[in-house]
């Protein structure tokens, strides 16, 4: 089945040590998102890529960066993790009008989420 | 994005219908009403969405008030697997603007 894959599912890093989380998708969707979800809170959008165009949310800290080397992969880099960055990080994809893969059963404009990576900062 | 208001939690008995309400009194004419749910230890998943008319799919039904200021997600026969946090989200589908702004959601507990 086409899907959104996040590796690893659990990541432990040390305070201040850079960490990279990865996301891949087999849906051939043109939009990819990164959300942060802290314990008992709702997911919060950090940024998204619309094709190759990077869109940062206004309140996303500079400590968070992202790369999208191709359609299938997207990375979240945390340059100097703090204790407050411990959270679940969710990757999602969507397809906008004109980019819907032919024959795909998926619905335009809906987002498809991966299982998340739970980051622990020691 | 316009805001939504949902009860923090609800309980329902297994195999009974569940009606999850959402208020969105400041909805604009172009806002779509989306519902997602998040099962424990998983990412959110799309449930259903609509604009003005009621909608049905294999997972649920969405009933939208005539003035569009409220909506109700209906699970026709709840199972234990439906225990999740349900998010009602307003989304303005602009080309290139695909944000989802999650509110606090409703935590649904299913009683066996």
Keywords:
heterodimer, A: 122 residues, seven-stranded mixed beta sheet, four-stranded antiparallel beta sheet, B: 112 residues, mainly beta, five-stranded mixed beta sheet, 9 strands
Blueprint of the fold:
The complex is a heterodimer of chains A (122) and B (112).
Chain A: E1 4-7, E2 10-13, E3 19-25, E4 31-37, E5 44-50, E6 53-56, E7 64-67, E8 73-78, E9 87-94, E10 112-113, E11 117-121
Parallel strand pairs in A: 2-11
Antiparallel strand pairs in A: 1-3, 3-8, 4-5, 4-9, 5-6, 7-8, 9-10, 9-11
Chain B: E1 9-13, E2 18-23, E3 31-38, E4 45-50, E5 55-56, E6 61-64, E7 70-75, E8 84-92, E9 106-111
Explain how this protein is built.
The complex is a heterodimer of chains A (122) and B (112). Chain A has strands spanning 4-7, 10-13, 19-25, 31-37, 44-50, 53-56, 64-67, 73-78, 87-94, 112-113, 117-121. Chain A is an all-beta fold and 122 residues long. Chain A contains no helices and eleven strands. In chain A, strand 4 (31-37) and strand 5 (44-50) form a beta hairpin. In chain A, strands 2, 4, 5, 6, 9, 10 and 11 form a seven-stranded mixed β-sheet that branches. Chain A has a four-stranded antiparallel β-sheet with strand order 1-3-8-7, with no helix packed on it. Helix content of chain A is 0%, strand content 48%. The relative contact order of chain A is 0.33. In chain B, 34% of the residues are buried. Chain B has 112 residues and is mainly beta. In chain B, strands 1-9-8-3-4 form a five-stranded mixed β-sheet, with no helix packed on it. In chain B, strands 2-7-6-5 form a four-stranded antiparallel β-sheet, with no helix packed on it. Helix content of chain B is 0%, strand content 46%. Chain B is globular. At the A-B interface, strand 5, strand 9 and strand 10 of A face strand 3 and strand 4 of B.
């Amino acid at each position: 089945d086409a899907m959104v894959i996040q590796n690893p599912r659990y990541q432990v890093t040390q305070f201040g040590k850079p960490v990279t989380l990865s996301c891949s998708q087999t849906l051939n969707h043109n939009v990819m998102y990164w959300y942060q979800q802290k314990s008992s809170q709702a997911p919060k959008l950090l940024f998204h890529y619309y094709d190759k165009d990077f869109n940062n949310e206004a309140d996303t800290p500079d400590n968070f960066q992202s790369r999208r080397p191709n359609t299938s992969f997207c990375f979240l880099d945390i340059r100097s993790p703090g204790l407050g960055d411990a959270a679940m990080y969710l990757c999602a994809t969507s397809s906008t009008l004109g980019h819907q893969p032919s024959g795909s059963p998926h619905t335009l404009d809906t987002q498809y989420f991966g299982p998340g990576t739970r980051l622990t900062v020691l | 994005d316009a805001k939504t208001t949902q009860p923090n939690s609800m309980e329902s008995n297994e195999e009974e219908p569940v009606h999850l309400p959402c208020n969105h009194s400041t909805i604009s004419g172009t806002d779509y009403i989306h519902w997602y749910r998040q099962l424990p230890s998983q990412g959110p998943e799309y449930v259903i969405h609509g604009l003005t008319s009621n909608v049905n799919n294999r997972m649920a039904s969405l009933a939208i008030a005539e003035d569009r200021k409220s909506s109700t997600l209906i699970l026709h026969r709840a199972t234990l697997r439906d225990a999740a946090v349900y998010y009602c989200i307003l989304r303005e589908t602009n080309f290139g603007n695909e944000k989802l702004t999650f509110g606090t959601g409703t935590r649904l507990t299913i009683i066996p």
